[in-house]
């Protein structure tokens, strides 16, 4: 158990970081603590928590923009946006079901992990909606990047660097997002009984239609249930009736076709977003493999009987894979299969010992590793922020 420091403001964050620099003592960065199982285990003696940096700073419905402090619960921001008929369109992934954690996912954690859900297939990831940040670097300097509009930048695009940086270049204190209007309603077209190759091909075909599919996932059959190929449509109810019928005719997919009502559709995509309901035994290790959508079934076929469970999101471009635990979490065959499909793999759940011994994130080429190290050292020259979280120090 590490000591937890929870500053009330940016000055407190700056002071904590400067003390860590002076002592050459790395600190772990944490928001709501819901994603502590992601990345390599922390080796820091102290944890800097942003949980007290809370509050929505700006909510401009007419501008489609919202700003909040890093420790603000994602649910609070989503509720405030919903009251104005808007949302964070990228559908933030909630890690609690996967890790069995409690607490509340925060805006800072969302940005640090680029947490994006099924709607990414149409609207992009969290980083694509992120337009401004304030953060405190490993030098103890507060910087601001971006603002309330999308625009070109020169030099480092710090907004995009912050998304997915896992706290290694700075401690986020504020974030600003572009939002989108809420859909009036939704439905999901479900085709049952398709094999992986046929199901993923149907997803890819659907994404090529003009019907604005906002979710495309294939759930292989398990526990006596048939495989389901799921396509979500969102818009005005009158539009959905036409689009769902036209999409079904266009696909001409074999198998029984059903339409879910809005409530059932939301429940299904919440489960797909958070992954855990489809991955079986909670003791299994879990990988996320990103490939070109049409190559997803190739990765699964290459792994064969090693798989305990799997499913496809993002039209087949994201494969969630569960495997029985082992010393190396199956890293060699998973990464070999991903490489053959020209993709990459991330170990997203395993015990501390395994995550300390195995490359959690995709190993980088020597040239890319040098570039990454140079960028990180620009912001955190002493290496005090989440040291070793992404790669061994």
Give a nutshell description of this structure.
Keywords: FAD, Flavoprotein. The chain has 393 residues and is an alpha+beta fold.
Distance linking N and C termini? 21 Å
Strand content: 25-35%
Structural class by SSE content: alpha+beta
Could you name the CATH class of the largest domain? Alpha Beta
Q: What characterizes the major β-sheet?
A: 5 strands, antiparallel
Q: Any guess at the CATH architecture of the largest domain?
A: 2-Layer Sandwich
CATH topology of the largest domain: Uridine Diphospho-n-acetylenolpyruvylglucosamine Reductase, domain 3
Instruction: Tell me the strand order in the biggest sheet.
Output: 4-5-9-7-8
Primary descriptors:
393 residues, Uridine Diphospho-n-acetylenolpyruvylglucosamine Reductase, domain 3, Alpha-Beta Plaits, 4-stranded antiparallel β-sheet, FAD-binding protein, flavoprotein, FAD binding, FAD-linked_Oxase-like_C, FAD-bd_PCMH_sub2
